[in-house]
Please model this.
Amino acid sequence: MTDLITEAPDGIRLRVHVQPKAGRTEIVGLHGDALKIRLKAAPVDGAANQALVEFLSEVLGIPEAGIRIAGGLASRRKSVVIRGVTATGARSRLGLA
Model:
């Protein structure tokens, strides 16, 4: 299994699996080789993607501008590029250390 957090030239890359329309927004654990995150927001007009960016910003303690969904905008499986945090720091803040 490959690591769900990898170093990238522009920061780190995080693989996530989202479950929209959940009862609350939270990190659930692992889903295969991705971090599973439940999102309260529905996948309508980009609301779930925005909720994901806001949630990761809060958990990682970095501005939303440092987070970009690089792949999977219309999918549950997403690749997120995050600037301003190391892989080690992200693992710790996401509860994966």
About this structure: The two ends are 17 Å apart (CA to CA). The CA atoms of residues 29 and 36 lie 5 Å apart. The chain has two helices and six strands. Residues 5-93 form a domain with the Conserved Hypothetical Protein Mth637; Chain: A; fold (CATH 3.30.1200.10).
